[in-house]
Backbone:
């Protein structure tokens, strides 16, 4: 009798976690805490998000209100902790309010670039052939163009607004994401589970989005973090070039542009917004480094 | 023993991980005399490689020697500093790893890499080092050493690479050579050649050898002594003849029982897998680690406390309280599986003159490369409830055949029929749902067959929905039933692949293929990546499912013992051509095609008395497409008869039953040569 012998082979290996699995966001948080750079990065980012969200409550002054009395003494003081700018506007308030557009535009642009880039990369890597050729060449063209000049042309033509900045950032960052996703797709499409999906008759769209894309998420999430940091720099540069968000609402790059000429006299006016940009970029970079480290460890 | 070269004293090795400390090796004591060869055997995860890494102090991050000593030539290795270790490694102790390509530097010629060893360790000059390298290449039986010296690793075949790595290990004449699964992942023929080389070298050099393998059959012919490890402990150790002739530990017996051998097939007896599976290493057993899987367990005695390795007979130690009480070992046998009798049943799946040619795409500025004939005029058939096995070395076209059957590739010429309907020209995208349901596939690699992002339940449920049209509401029950069919607990549905063992993953893959109750399942090397003990269970499962569902199985494998056991019909392929085809008992007994004969001779026999390949296929497989005329095997055939082999395609000789041999030598003559 062969049946009894094989019946005892019924294998049930003990589950990795016997308790009910914790919600996903909690697992994410605990995972991040295992890496020191990721923890530091996440704390910096969360702090900025809180400050920006609570700006109406925390800001001691209205961001655009000049304090004529302070003009005589713009340096940091008890009334103005970080001092005021050349028009007597409180820097603390302007930095807090200025964090809001940055923290909206940068992630939204990354999200846009990731969606567009992933779709292009998936199609190119999975379909190959002429689609691949068209997508990769189009990406090369965008990437080979000096982006700052591209921004100046587009924003000068269409006008500078939050949505337009998101749009140009999406368009110029999508090719980089597309390249990453295409590379991952070229490798993942050869996996046996993709062949198994074809054998049961899944559509190409299903295979790309459900079988391949989730397995590319690791490198993609790391890249999204890095790219958010880079976008913050670019938003600063756009502001500095005068094609960022229109005045008078506070914009970190614009704040540097207005005051860097007075660097020798009142350095704090330009340095404070610079420090704000740097800290946020460093936060995203550290989170990216930490996530990559965690990804490698698992 | 005082004259020991290597002595492990109560060695324990621990890894510090996220879940705390894991004891990978616990209290292993061993001694190895100069020139002796020890085989270290056990399932993956038993700690055998960890022992080897500890000897060369390569434990890696988080690994440390937690207790005991490693004495090499009387010195405690744990106490050595980096400089002393560097001097020792490569000169006194050398190691050969599983993947030869990973051990060789791809940007250096193999000659330079070989010369480095004497130049660094002995301060030899370039000319002297070159002379020694050349002599060593001759020693490992590489033809034309001068030319090989100038090659880069990627220009050599897997077998040649492994010989280079062995040459590199031996060039410093080490006192101890550690071989860590040196033949796993190589073709049978290459494995036989490497094993043969190790045997021959043992007679010429004085190095002691530690040979690590998961397969008892591999070490049988090479070693003087065998150590069997389980869950980090040495459970049995003794002279090779005692271990095979009178194994005393139930685990050793289990490992022997689950080996398919060339003598038996499924009609005579089923394989006996070891029940249960290896427990995770961070769970420490109270008594005997094997108790949970042991057929001879006695609750009170086996699990009461730690069980020490005790001397059973001269040189034979066993860690089992019942070692002396166990009956004399005889291979466990169970009844065979009922199979469909008769030959003349109408084929379910068949190929006629099937040819697949890959035309390489011309690159910009590239030379036009010759098209590759991956399949050449293949005619095969498999009937209902039967197993057709396709065997051959890698590159023989067996996987291409599987892909054409499955529709992942389409045929260039010829026909593939399923129930009489032509499907060879239909790529998977053009196959209808009914056709997809009828023919499914099980893949080779357990780590890539399941999507790591999806749960088991989702993977199987998706197949049920698409192939059987199940409604979402019925899925949970259907998934549970299907999991039970492949002998997995329904709770498995919630797991993701990384929580499963290799065998469990393969079972899920089988369940997924069975979702639509297919007529034909094409299995491409489904067990070759699994441990022998797990392999036996999967093979039995395939057999039972076939008997229960009447499935036709097309089983692709390079392992002839598995094929002998499982198949009803066998096709032996070489360079895209079928050289021999027939019922398994016809193909595996004389007269056989010379290639089949060589493959059979290459199979490692789990019997120290009969080890040693009689015929070794030399040379490498030519690139498909290079053989224009004549017999594809002509360049390597051990029974080549002359120019006729090079110039004329061999005639197909039809023998008893539907046995076919494509060879110039008449079958009667072959039979006479092969007794």
Residues:
């Amino acid at each position: 009798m062969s049946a009894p012998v094989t019946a005892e082979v019924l294998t049930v290996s003990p589950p990795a976690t016997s308790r009910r699995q914790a919600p996903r966001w909690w697992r994410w948080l605990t995972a991040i805490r295992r890496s020191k750079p990721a923890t530091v990065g996440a704390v910096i980012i969360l702090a900025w998000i809180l400050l920006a969200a609570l700006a109406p409550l925390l800001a001691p002054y209205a961001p655009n209100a000049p304090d004529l009395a302070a003009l005589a003494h713009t340096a940091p003081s008890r009334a103005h902790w970080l001092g005021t700018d050349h028009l007597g506007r409180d820097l603390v308030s302007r930095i807090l309010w200025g964090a809001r557009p940055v923290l909206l535009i940068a992630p939204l642009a990354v999200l846009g670039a990731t969606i567009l880039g992933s779709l292009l990369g998936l199609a190119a890597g999975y379909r190959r052939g002429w689609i691949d050729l068209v997508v990769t060449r189009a990406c090369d063209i965008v990437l080979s163009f000096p982006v700052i000049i591209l921004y100046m042309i587009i924003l000068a033509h269409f006008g500078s607004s939050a949505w337009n900045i998101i749009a140009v950032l999406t368009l110029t960052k999508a090719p980089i994401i597309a390249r990453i996703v295409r590379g991952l797709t070229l490798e993942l499409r050869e996996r046996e589970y993709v062949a198994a999906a074809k054998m049961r008759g899944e559509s190409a769209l299903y295979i790309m989005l459900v079988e391949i894309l989730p397995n590319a998420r690791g490198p993609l999430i790391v890249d999204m973090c890095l790219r958010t940091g880079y976008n913050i720099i670019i938003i600063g540069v756009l502001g500095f070039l005068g094609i960022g968000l229109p005045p008078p609402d506070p914009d970190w790059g614009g704040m540097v542009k207005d005051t860097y000429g007075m660097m020798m006299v009142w350095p704090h006016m330009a340095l404070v917004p610079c420090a704000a940009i740097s800290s946020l970029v460093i936060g995203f970079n550290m989170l990216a480094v930490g996530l990559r480290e965690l990804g490698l460890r698992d | 023993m005082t004259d020991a070269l290597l002595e492990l004293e109560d060695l324990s090795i621990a890894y510090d991980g996220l879940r705390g400390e894991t004891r990978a090796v616990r209290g292993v004591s061993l001694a190895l005399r100069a020139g002796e060869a020890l085989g270290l055997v056990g399932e993956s995860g038993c700690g055998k490689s960890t022992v080897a890494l500890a000897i060369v102090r390569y434990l890696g991050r988080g690994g440390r020697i937690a207790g005991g000593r490693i004495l090499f030539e009387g010195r405690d290795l744990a106490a050595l500093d980096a400089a002393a270790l560097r001097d020792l490694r490569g000169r006194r102790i050398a190691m050969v790893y599983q993947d030869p390509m990973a051990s060789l530097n791809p940007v250096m010629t193999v000659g330079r890499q070989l010369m480095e060893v004497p130049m660094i360790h002995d301060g030899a000059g370039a000319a002297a080092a070159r002379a020694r390298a050349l002599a060593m290449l001759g020693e490992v039986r590489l033809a034309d050493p001068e030319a090989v010296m100038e090659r880069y690793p990627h220009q050599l075949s897997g077998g040649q690479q492994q010989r280079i790595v062995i040459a590199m290990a031996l060039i410093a004449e080490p006192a101890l050579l550690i071989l860590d699964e040196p033949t796993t992942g190589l073709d049978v023929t290459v494995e036989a050649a490497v094993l043969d080389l190790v045997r021959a070298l043992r007679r010429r050099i004085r190095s002691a050898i530690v040979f690590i393998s998961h397969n008892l059959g591999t070490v049988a012919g090479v070693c003087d002594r065998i150590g069997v490890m389980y869950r980090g402990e040495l459970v049995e150790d003794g002279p090779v003849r005692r271990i095979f002739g009178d194994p005393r530990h139930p685990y050793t017996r289990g490992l022997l029982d689950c080996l398919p051998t060339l003598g038996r097939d499924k009609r005579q007896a089923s394989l006996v897998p070891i029940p249960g599976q290896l427990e995770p290493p961070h769970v420490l057993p109270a008594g005997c680690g094997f108790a949970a899987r042991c057929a001879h367990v006695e609750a009170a005695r086996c699990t009461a406390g730690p069980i020490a390795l005790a001397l059973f007979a001269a040189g034979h130690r066993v860690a089992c309280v019942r070692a002396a009480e166990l009956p004399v070992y005889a291979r466990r046998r169970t009844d065979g599986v009922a199979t469909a009798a008769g030959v003349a049943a109408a084929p379910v799946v068949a190929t006629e003159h099937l040819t697949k040619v890959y035309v390489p795409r011309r690159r910009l500025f590239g030379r036009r490369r010759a098209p590759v004939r991956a399949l050449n005029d293949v005619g095969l058939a498999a009937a209902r409830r039967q197993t057709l096995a396709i065997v051959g070395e890698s590159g023989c076209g067996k996987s291409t055949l599987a892909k054409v059957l499955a529709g992942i590739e389409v045929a260039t010429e010829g026909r593939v029929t399923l129930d009489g309907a032509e499907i060879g020209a239909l790529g998977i995208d053009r196959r209808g749902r009914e056709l997809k349901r009828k023919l499914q596939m099980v893949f080779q690699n357990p780590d890539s067959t399941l999507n790591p992002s999806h749960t088991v339940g989702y993977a199987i449920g998706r197949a049920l929905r698409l192939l059987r049209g199940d409604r979402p509401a019925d899925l949970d029950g259907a998934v549970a039933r299907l999991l039970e069919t492949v002998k997995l607990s329904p709770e498995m549905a919630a797991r993701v692949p990384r929580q499963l063992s290799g065998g469990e993953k393969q079972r899920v893959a089988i369940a997924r293929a069975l979702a639509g109750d297919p007529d034909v399942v094409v299995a491409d090397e489904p067990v070759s990546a699994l441990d022998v003990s797990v392999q036996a269970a999967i093979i039995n499962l395939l057999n039972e499912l076939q008997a229960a569902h009447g499935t036709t199985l097309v089983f692709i494998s390079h392992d002839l013992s598995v094929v002998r056991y499982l198949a009803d019909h066998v096709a032996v392929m070489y360079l895209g051509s079928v050289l021999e085809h027939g019922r398994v008992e016809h193909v595996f007994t004389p007269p056989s095609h010379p290639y089949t004969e060589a493959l059979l001779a290459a199979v490692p026999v789990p019997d120290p008395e009969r080890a040693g390949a009689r015929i070794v296929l030399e040379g490498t497989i030519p690139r498909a497409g290079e053989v224009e005329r004549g017999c594809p095997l002509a360049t390597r055939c051990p029974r080549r008869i002359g120019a006729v082999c090079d110039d004329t395609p061999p005639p197909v000789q039809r023998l008893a039953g539907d046995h076919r041999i494509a060879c110039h030598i008449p079958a009667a003559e072959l039979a006479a040569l092969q007794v």
In short: Chain A is about 70% helix and 0% strand. The CA atoms of residues 82 and 245 of chain A lie 23 Å apart. The interface with chain B takes residues 1-3, 5-16, 34, 191-193, 195-202, 211, 214-215, 217 of chain A (CB under 8 Å).
